[in-house]
Structure formats: structure tokens, C-alpha cells
Amino acid sequence: MQRLHHYVRYFFLSFLTHVCTLHASSLSCEAPSYIEIDEGPGYTHKHLQLGGLAPGRISTDKEWTFSLSGSFIYWNIMQENMAIASLLQPGDPVLALTVYQEMSFHPGFKVTATSNVTPYDWSGIADYTLLHGTSTTQTAPPQGGAMVVNSGFTSPEAAYADAAFVTSNFEVALDAVDLILARPSYYGHRLIITPAAGGKLGFLDQRLRTKTKLIASPAEEVPVQYDTDTWFLGPKLGIDIEWILGYGLKSLSSFSAALLYQKQKLRADFYDISNVNDNLLDLERNFLFFHPNFQMAIGLSWGAYSSRYAFHGSLFALYEIDYYLAQNASRAATLENFYANGLNPASSGHLGDLLFHGLKAGFRCDF
Question: What are the beta bridge partners of residue 288?
């Protein structure tokens, strides 16, 4: 009886283990330590995977792997030196409240494709980012007070004159491509460090439209238009860090820096305050710059394997920063620069940096 009881218990435990193994093989969060592939005698380098030594490594059942990810981004667009006007409080002509261009969040997307390019863990990465957004600001003087519009946001003849109201529309369009070559330099049980090098290229366009009505002017609104078209190209270096938390969950962080060669075309149209159909100034300039760009991201991802490790899917959410130095070309278009410096950004001090930041969330599939 004891022997029969022993056999029944042994059979029950074996059956339970077998069922659990089958269930785990259909959806697993861990990389495979061994994958049985019938490739003939002597075939070993695909049979033994690195999953047992580096559980954070994504290893499907194929020697040549490919991944594709799509991301929704919801970023705030912020630029320095965008003070439109000053509001003077009644009874206090000295103390002023500065009104800045409204900066808001806008939706966009990222698409990233990755493929191993050699059998030694080198990966080629192509990333495309698109973000277009427009923000509008309207302001008027306080009750019993006054408002003056800053130079660069109205006609040179009307700069710092009393205004009844001002409306400003600011549009930014970013289209960027990153081409990267990366290889992990450290594979630990919890930690993965991956340096990367490559290049960044793209377009960064800005449109600024303002309309100002002056108290001393006719009824027409005085328009001002800025168009800044920029293309950029340059080398990029970065590092990605992954920390394995367990159960398919891991933390992600990255930092990169690029030195961008930029060609910037600036066009500024100003109109006579007495006749808005007559251009007072129609300026067009081309500038060449070397400006740095910095990107940072931090967040979490969760992923799991499909049946027999045919592919791996993961969800991720990160907070990301994309920082471009000295991008506000309209800053150069001040009343002093029109006549003294010929609209030269280099003589106008700090132009103002451009910052994108916000949420990035999406899905990645390795197969």
C-alpha cells in the first residue's frame, strides 16, 4: 500500500510539473536558456542561448532577429525668449507683468526598427520622430492699465507702443531620423549596458504669426510673420541602461548627445502701421551653425515570449526629453538688430533653446 501510495504521488507530481511546463512554454517572461532546433549534427551555436546567463537579453528562436516598435508621444513644446508683451498695472507704470507665448502639449509618434547586423550582438537601429504643433496666445491690457508689445513681436515702428491687444500663433514642426549602431558592453544577471554611435538628421521648422492693434493706430491689425526653416545633420553618441526587475518587468534609461550642423533660413515680414498692405521690411537671411542636441529618457517596460519563443512582445512607457540649443532665430529680429547688425543672430546674445518633453508609450515586437 505504501508503494502504491508512493507511485500515485509520484505520478501526480510528474503530471502537475508537466502541465505547468506546458503552460509556461506558451507565454514566458524569461529568455530561453536552451532552444531545441533540429539543424543537423554539430549545430550548437543556436542551440545554446544566452538567456540563462543574461535573462534580460531578448532571444527568439531565430539567428537573425528583427524588431519593430511604434510609440505615441505627447510632448510639450517650450522655447526661451518668447516674451510677447508687458502688462502695466494701473497706478504703477514701473512694475510690469510679462506675457509669454503659450506653450502646450501636442501628439506625435515614433517608429523604430532594429535588426542584428552581425552574429556578435551588433544591432542597427533606425528611429523616426514626427511632432507638429501650434500654440495660440491672446492678451489685452488689464482694466485701467496698459500693454506694450515687445520688439520682434510687432512692427519696428510699433515696438514698445501702447497696444489694445495682441494675438500670437507659434508653430513648430520636427521631423528627425536617428541611425544608430549599438552593441551591449555588459551583460549581467540584472544589468545590461549598451553604448551606441551613429548620426542624426532631420528638419526643424518654426512659424510665428502675430497681430497687434495699437491704441494710436488705425483700426487695422498690424501683422508680423517669421518663417524659420532648418535642416540638420551630425554625429551622435549615446548609452542605454536596462535593469531587470523580474517577471518580465525592467527599467529603461538612456542618454545621448549629438553635434548638429544646421543650415537655417529666416524670413521676416513687417508691415507699416499706417498701411498693413505695405511691407516695411522684408528680410531673408541664411545662417550656418554647429549646435548640440541632448536626449534623455527614463521609464519601464514589460514583456513576454510567445509559444516556443517565436517572438517577444513588450509594452513600454517613458518620460523623454529632446533638447536643442539656440533655435529661436526670431530672437535676432529686434529693433536694434534691424539697423545696427543687419539681423545677425550671432550679435543678439542668447537666442533661446528649444525643448520637447513628455510621455512616450508604445509596443515593441521582436521576431
Answer: 263
Give the residue from 155, 139, 153, 151 showing the smallest Cα distance to 97: 139
Tell me which DSSP letter residue 4 carries: H
- CB count in 10 Å sphere of residue 284: 11
115, 126, 238 from 64: Cα distances, Å: 8, 17, 24
Strands ordered across the beta sheet of 96-100: 96-100, 83-88, 146-149
Say how many Å lie between the first and final Cα of the chain, rounded.
52
Q: Residue 192: exposed, middle, or buried by beta-carbon count in 10 A (0-12, 13-18, 19+)?
A: buried
The angle formed by the CA atoms of residues 323, 325 and 328, to the nearest 5 degrees, is 110
Report the candidate in 102, 87, 88 with the shortest Cα–Cα distance to residue 138. 102
**Phi, psi for 308 (deg, rounded to 5):** 60, 25
pLDDT values of the chain reduced to their tens digit, one per residue, 367 residues: 444 444 445 444 444 444 344 344 444 555 544 433 333 334 344 433 444 444 566 766 566 678 899 999 999 999 988 888 888 877 666 667 888 898 899 999 999 999 876 667 788 999 999 999 999 998 888 887 888 887 667 766 666 677 888 899 999 999 999 999 999 888 778 899 999 999 999 999 999 988 888 877 655 677 888 899 999 999 999 999 999 998 889 999 999 999 999 999 988 887 766 665 665 667 788 888 899 999 999 999 999 888 777 788 999 999 999 999 989 877 766 544 454 444 444 444 577 899 999 999 999 998 8
What residues contact 10, with CB distance under 8 A and at least 6 apart? none
Question: What DSSP string describes 217-231?
Answer: S-SS-EEEEEEEEEE
Do 133 and 101 form a contact (C-beta atoms < 8 A)? no
Query: How many angstroms separate the CA atoms of 271 and 191, rounded?
Result: 60
Joined grid coordinates for residue 119? 552574429
Residue 141: CB atoms within 10 Å: 21
| Alpha-carbon distances of 281 from 190, 277, 335, 339, 348, rounded to whole Å | 62, 12, 11, 11, 19
| Sequence letter at residue 34 | Y
For residues 132 and 112, what is the distance between their CA atoms, to the nearest angstrom?
Answer: 19
